[in-house]
Design goal:
The protein contains two helices and five strands; from the N terminus they run αββαβββ. By secondary structure, it is of the alpha+beta class. The chain has one domain: Rossmann fold (3-Layer(aba) Sandwich). A three-stranded mixed beta sheet has the order 1-2-3, with helices on one face. Strands 4-5 form a two-stranded antiparallel ribbon. Helix 2 links the parallel strand 2 and strand 3.
Length: about 100
Amino acid sequence: MGAGKTTLIKILCQELGIEELTNSPTFSIVNEYLSNKNETIYHFDFYRIEVEEEVFDMGYEDYFYGDSYCFIEWPEMIPNLLPPNSVKVTIELDADNNRIISVAH
C-alpha cells in the first residue's frame, strides 16, 4: 500500500493519451479510459478480490486477451488468470522510503 501503483498507472495513461482524470478503481474493480487516439485502456484494482473465481463473472478474458492495454493493481490476487505475456512491474519501498522498481516479463 502506498508504494505508487496508482501514480505509475496515471503516468502511463497520460503517456498513452488519456486526458481525463484517472484514479484507482478500488470499488468498481475496473475503469475504462479512451485515449486521444481512440484507444481503450483498462485499469483494474483487484485488492478486494478474495478468490480468483470472483473475476470470472466480469469476463476477464475479453479484457486480458483483447487488443487494449490492461494495467492491473494487485495482480497477485489473480495469479492464475494473468496472460503468459504479462509484464510485471514491482514497486517496493526501502527503509528510507525510496521506491525500488523492477520489471519482469
